[in-house]
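Human: I hope this is not a bother. Would you mind checking the protein record under this note? Thank you for your patience.
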Amino acid sequence: MKPETLAVKLGHAGAGVVPPIELSTTYVRDDHYALAGNRDYARDKNPTFEHAEQVLAALEGGVAALTFASGMAAATTALRVLCAPGGHVIASRVGYFAVRGWLQKFCAKWQVALDLVDTSDAAQVAAALRPGKTSAVWFETPANPTWEVTDIAAIAALAKRAGARTVVDSTAASPVFTRPLALGADLVMHSATKYLGGHSDVVAGALVTAARDELWAELEHARREEGAILGPVEAYLLLRGMRTLYARVPRQAQTALALARKLEALGVAVHYPGLPSHPQHAVAARQMTGGFGGMLSIRVGDRDPLAVIRKLRVWVAATSLGGVESLIEHRYSVEGANTPTPRDLLRLSVGLEHEDDLYDDLAQAL
């Protein structure tokens, strides 16, 4: 079945059209003290988050998935398992600032060598790799908030030759537009709070693997022992969101491309992989199928970016992305003075409102 069908059909249990929420935290034993089923405690196994994991693994073309209490929980679990004291890891210089900041502190504390490079430049990754010592290459593509695109297949091939794992944060692309495992990645990470949930009402994270190997067993163990699990109600909301993924996200990407073209024609500097002017447009066109995502950023130059935001009436000033409502954010204010994000950059998460209303609102504010 096609992904659009899998997103709707998988995850059912029993006769109900809507999958049930399993709230029990513990499970009974029989007279011989044997488990009545294959479950003993919800921290390890809960059918509600297992249903969501089944759907996500299928959509990403993976063999298994793990859900977590947040995207940060998923990211930090993967990185802690991959990073051994005295080892080496490569990460993208551009990406979600909380992961980058956590990684810098973690590596410094545990004596892990860290190279932050521009992963959209394969030569920089090749130069940074230390065969036999580099354990992982971590990058986000498209990369928040300036939307550089990294060639997953090229980086995965370099990493594999050096004995390193490739982990891709594919939050912005979602499985609708990019399937990193098919391009050679070992793991895919999602902040499922964003497009997978899609309604700004659930915080969740996920990892998807290409193989049930020793690394995956360690990740399963880490989640079980550390307890960063997704609650059953949150798992249900995530599953509900994924059922409409292929209805929401292509529409958001279509509108984002239209806005990017109109804003560029207006003379605004636009960061969007779907524009021919984007430095990695050719890579994006080859790697992303069916669209370029619903995220773009604009540069407002010598205008006051906060003054622009204050004039908006349709766009909502708020953190996060991937919901049905269009959000705008001044990342510089959020990340602080040490951010690599330009001061005049505004990040736009395109929702499901009409394209004309979104454009007219931006045009009058600019």
